[in-house]
Amino acid sequence: MAEKSWHLITYDVRDPKRLRKVAKKLEGYGERLQYSVFRCRMDRLALEKLCWELAEIMAANDDLLVMPMCSRCAERVPLHSTGDQSAWAADPPTFRIV
């Protein structure tokens, strides 16, 4: 199984029709933090698929920013962000060192 990692995705789409399509597409991949900001936890293949799907929707004058985040960074989401940050915590280890 491929390792999943966190990504912060934000966009600026000039056309309202394309804007709705981009937002709808991202809702299928992650959680909306603000109007055009999403957090998504996915593996490399899912990220590539998402970027390809968005490229099919977006125009050359639209902007997309995909920022990978390490687990430690994701755990330190500022308290002023909306929503429940507990989902940002790293998965507990599946082993124990004794």
Automatic annotation (TrEMBL):
Source organism (scientific name): Lacipirellula parvula
Family that this chain belongs to: Belongs to the CRISPR-associated endoribonuclease Cas2 protein family.
Listed Pfam families: CRISPR_Cas2 (PF09827)
PANTHER family linked: CRISPR-ASSOCIATED ENDORIBONUCLEASE CAS2 (PTHR34405), CRISPR-ASSOCIATED ENDORIBONUCLEASE CAS2 3 (PTHR34405:SF3)
Cofactor or coenzyme needed: Mg(2+)
UniProt keywords, alphabetically: Antiviral defense, Endonuclease, Hydrolase, Magnesium, Metal-binding, Nuclease
Biological role stated in the UniProt entry: CRISPR (clustered regularly interspaced short palindromic repeat), is an adaptive immune system that provides protection against mobile genetic elements (viruses, transposable elements and conjugative plasmids). CRISPR clusters contain sequences complementary to antecedent mobile elements and target invading nucleic acids. CRISPR clusters are transcribed and processed into CRISPR RNA (crRNA). Functions as a ssRNA-specific endoribonuclease. Involved in the integration of spacer DNA into the CRISPR cassette.
GO biological process assignments: defense response to virus; maintenance of CRISPR repeat elements
Protein name according to UniProt: CRISPR-associated endoribonuclease Cas2
